[in-house]
Design brief:
With 267 residues, the chain is an alpha/beta fold. The chain contains 11 helices and 7 strands. It starts with a strand and ends with a helix.
Length: 267
């Protein structure tokens, strides 16, 4: 059974989409079967992978509205040096008004959960790139997830505003227990670290003190290649496979895989 992981933070500009895209590609690099879901109306994950939104025959909105089967909106994206492909559910601007549409549906927090149940067994990991908000789309993602990965930028007031996200996660955790399900914190990922500044390292220490063992050992430094790769519509592993950013995202993927294998062995 595939593990569903939401990449979420209501604060924009924390490297959420960059993480979703490059973590997914790196998991494929390690031979994992991966589905990346773009759950953001901006469609940044979609365009970062070179998918032309204007020519799509179907997208996440169509699946959520019941107009298309979820299997019919999944696309394949090749990953450099791998025979395996990354599977992607793209997003378009149609998602901008999806919250109101979902409210009309029964059990509206679980609409996506019902969809992803149809396909998650085909994958090792399902990665959801959530919108930078705590609306009904993000709730749908969380209710469908087994865990949530929280990217936090290494900048002043990085932790500010996380209380609301953590409170939302606690509400989902409480409600899922009723259905004998669980939502855990996959980990906190430190992003955009400028290793040259004392301020950056001070924030690293602050976040580690706050989240303790919940922080990934891998942290993502500021890197030009990671910023440029989306303009070419390819992940960093394809654009600059030997760059520091590519090495770091592969390290993150390996850490995530190892953590999950360790948890499974303990059960």
């Amino acid at each position: 059974m595939g593990k569903v992981i939401s990449v979420a933070n209501q604060k924009g500009g924390v490297g959420k989409t960059t993480t979703s895209v490059n973590l997914s590609a790196s998991l494929v690099y390690y031979g994992k079967k991966v589905l990346l879901v773009d759950f953001d109306a901006q469609g940044s994950a979609t365009t970062s992978l070179g998918i032309n939104r204007s020519t799509l025959n179907g997208n996440l909105y169509d699946a959520l509205m019941g107009e298309m089967d979820i299997t019919d909106v999944i696309l394949e994206v090749p990953i450099q040096g791998r025979k395996e492909v990354l599977h992607v559910i793209p997003a378009t601007i149609d998602l901008a008004g999806i919250d109101y549409k979902l409210l009309e549906k029964e059990n509206h927090e679980y609409v996506f959960d019902q969809l992803v149940k149809k396909v998650k067994d085909n994958y090792d990991y399902v990665i959801i790139d959530c919108a930078p908000a705590l609306g009904l789309t993000t709730l749908n993602a969380l209710y469908a997830s087994d865990s949530v990965l929280i990217p936090i930028q290494c900048q002043f007031l990085a932790i500010d505003g996380l209380t609301q996200l953590l409170n939302t996660v606690r509400v989902v955790q409480k409600n899922l227990k009723v259905n004998k399900r669980e939502l855990t914190i996959e980990g906190v990922l430190l992003t955009m670290l400028d290793k040259r500044t004392k301020a950056g390292w001070a924030i690293v220490n602050e976040i580690k003190e706050y989240f303790q063992e919940g922080v990934f050992k891998t942290f993502i430094t500021s890197n030009v290649a990671a910023q440029v790769a989306p303009t070419y519509g390819i992940p960093i592993l394809t654009y600059a496979p030997k760059s520091p950013a590519a090495v770091l995202y592969k390290s993150l993927a390996k850490e995530l895989i190892d953590n999950n294998e360790k948890r499974q062995s303990i059960r």
